[in-house]
## 1
Amino acid sequence: MDFWDRKSKSISILDNNILAMPSQFELAYSQLRQYKLKVDFNQGLDMRLMDNGIVKMLSQLKYSSVLRIAWDRIQDEQSFDYVSGLLLRVFNPRKIMVYILVGYDTVFSQDVYRLKKIRSCGFDAFVMPYHKKSQLLNEFSRWNNRFYFRNLSFNNYLSSRKLLYLLPPYLDKL
């Protein structure tokens, strides 16, 4: 690893899609194992490229943080179901973080659905609004990412901020 100073005991891999280059991932995997380094896949691994072999390799690594995966599109729900099942066999769900891109090609109810599904697996979620100008998505992100959800429903959170008018009328309580 030409980026490792041979002093630190952990490495952050900032590649936003290392799984798209299998040879690079395999090289990084073997070197992380060889040198017994802790790793942080900082950008979130693409779950669409994960299979049983990749999950097995990931389970053999040491982590300096949680294992991060990304669920960006509602259309990838089948991939999420498959990969979450594989991950739950070998990881504590509290050691998994799922990045969730909201408002890209979804309506708000689909974003809420994905968040609920992620949480039902026991995973943490980090909500990332695609449209920074959407006050609803920004508040949704803030409510989740700052852990307000532990004490307040989203409806009560919005109400406490006098923003309940942002909530679409068709949406069930969150």
Note: DSSP finds six helices and seven strands in the chain.
## 2
Amino acid sequence: MLGVWLVLAASGPAPGQVPPARPEWKLNLAKSTFDPGPPPRSTTTTLFTAGRYLKVVSTTVDANGQISVVEYRVSPDGEEVPVTGARAYDSLSMKSIDTNTTEATRRKNGKVVQVSTRVMSADGRTATITTVGTDERGRKIHDVTVLERQ
């Protein structure tokens, strides 16, 4: 679930442009699935425009009540950027697939560990993010995370 944020960032901007910030997104746990689990208790992601980047701050309370904060700045041009606070990955890059879809590639020490595909609803209020790969313990994951704009 960590870092689910980044894929919220793009919704088809022209190259070199940062999409407008969508201030806050919250996890809809009832509509989300986490395999192998367990699911987090909550996640809130906040987006900030920062020059040509979009700053992403995602705060998650895990199943044990521990809080983690993942932060990074998304580049609109597919640049690989550093990530702090994520246990499973330390960098990511993002690309637009179409107006409502983005794909993020997450790496740990240069090796791809996860790929997340975000599909934005037509009204722009719901983001469905499908993440496949491995977690920080090397377990295969397949998560479908639904975030709703607040």
Note: The first strand starts at residue 24 and ends at 27.
